[in-house]
Amino acid sequence: MKRWIVFKTESASSKGWKERKLQPAGHLTRMLAEYLDCSDKALPEPGDRPREFARFEESVDPNFPDASTHVSWSDWEVSRVER
Question: Whole-prediction pTM value?
Fold first, then answer.
């Protein structure tokens, strides 16, 4: 089963609104993260937090030069899930 999981803010003016832009157009968005999921994992639940990925040049693996180098849990928390 293929699912598109989207994490978004309740309001377009929520914390960090100036940094949330769709690329390459640069339009502002309520989206925090999105994942295409083909697994049988359960959907996110209230209280879950999306992952945030970062890339630090000093940690890049030459075998995977475009990959993220670090992952952490977001400060954002799921408050509701819609199907």
Answer: 0.66
